[in-house]
Amino acid sequence: MPLVTPLSPDHDETTKELADFFNETLGFCPNSVLTMQRRPAISRAFINLNKAVMANEGRVTSALKRMIAWVSSNATGCRYCQAHAIRAAERYGAEQEQLDNIWEYRTHPAFSEAERAALDFSLQASQVPNGVDAEIKERLYIYWNEGEIVEMLGVISLFGYLNRWNDSMGTSIEDGAVESGEQYLGKHGWEEGKHNGSQY
User: Fold this and answer.
1) What SS3 string covers 19-75?
2) For 107-150, how does the pLDDT look when each residue is reduced to its tens digit (9 = 90+)?
3) Where is the Carboxymuconolactone decarboxylase-like domain (predicted)?
4) CA 7: distance to chain centroid?
5) CA distance readout (Å), 99 to 48, 52, 63, 65, 184
6) What are phi and psi of 73, to 5 degrees?
7) Is 126 exposed, middle or buried (0-12, 13-18, 19+ CB in 10 A)?
8) Calpha distance 88→14 (Å, rounded)
9) What is the distance between the alpha carbons of residues 53 and 177, in angstroms, rounded to a whole number?
10) CB atoms near residue 95 (< 10 Å)
């Protein structure tokens, strides 16, 4: 069981609107948001930040943003967010070869050098202590402008919040996210862990 029980997607009109928004993006409303909805100001702020961070304003595609989220969540160990990020990458147009080989992004030919620089940035920015250094900065500036780097760090930071939220909460993972996690991450040992709803 999670630390706090998520509200039902039909709890009230505002919660139904949240559920409708996420049904379009993920195919279901995340239990994380349904837990935040116990304090509606938090869920509203999260949704607005999520929309701003995931908006496309440059060359950082929706698919790349979700792969950045996956690398960040993988670095922090949040199984819930790993599955959500890979599902969202799939739904937002990541190439099948990239989805199948995300663990090998540094060497697999499905990833460009620009994508590798972005994903390495995500990995280093998500570690504690933070691993962003002059070499990461230099690689980023070869391929990306400052606005695009801000977009990337927005994704990394958003998922830093979500990784803390969901791992501490033990948020129960939804069936759709489990399917994506098993399909793309299972061969590397991904499992639901505390997010299967029976660990607490």
Assistant:
1) HHHHHHHCCCCCHHHHHHCCCHHHHHHHHHHHHHHHCCCCCCCHHHHHHHHHHHHHH
2) 999 999 999 999 999 999 999 999 999 999 999 999 999 999 99
3) 40-120
4) 21
5) 27, 24, 10, 13, 6
6) -70, -35
7) buried
8) 23
9) 21
10) 13
